[in-house]
Amino acid sequence: MVLPSESGANVTLPSDRAIVITRVFDAPRAVVFDAWTQPEHVAQWWDPRRKPLAVCEIDLRPGGSFRFVNQGVDGLQHPFVGVYREIAPPSRLVFTTRVGPSAAECVGTIHFEESEGKTILTLTMECARKEDRDAMLRMRIDVGTVQTLSNLGEYLGTRGEQQT
User: Fold this and answer.
1) CA distances (Å), origin 153, targets 44, 68, 86, 112
2) Is residue 12 in some structural domain?
3) How many domains does the chain have?
4) 39-79 per-position pLDDT tens digit
C-alpha cells in the first residue's frame, strides 16, 4: 500500500508491521548522513513545525542513545528517543525508537544511497506487531516524518556550498 504525499516522499506499507518512507535529497550522502547524526544540525530541522528542538542529544555509537524533544503547540514536550544498534557512515543507521513514553519500541533502519550527487534516503520502521504499526499510523507518524524530511531538504538547501 502506498500513502499519498505532496512533499516528494513516498510512504509505503510493505507488510503489516512496517512503514517505509523514501525521499531523494539534492546533496551527497555524507552531507545528509551528517545532517541526520550531528546534534547541531538535527536540532535545526527535526521538528515538523520547523522550530528548533528543545532538546537534541546524540551519542553516536553502537549502544549510544539519542533524545529529541519537540515543544508542542499545546505547551507539552514530546520526546523521541532511541538507541543506536549499528552505525556505518555514511551508508546506514539502525536504531530502536520509541515515540513517547507509552509507545511501543520499533526498529528503524535508514539507508543513505548516493546516485549522481543526490542521496536516496530510505527509512524503514519495523514494529513487533501490526497493532504497534497501526498505532504509529494513528499518531500520524507518516505525516510527521514526511514533514520532517521536507524540513531536512530545506535545511540542506540552506547549507549551499557546504554540500560539495
Assistant:
1) 12, 19, 24, 14
2) no
3) 1
4) 999 999 998 778 889 899 999 999 999 999 987 777 788 78
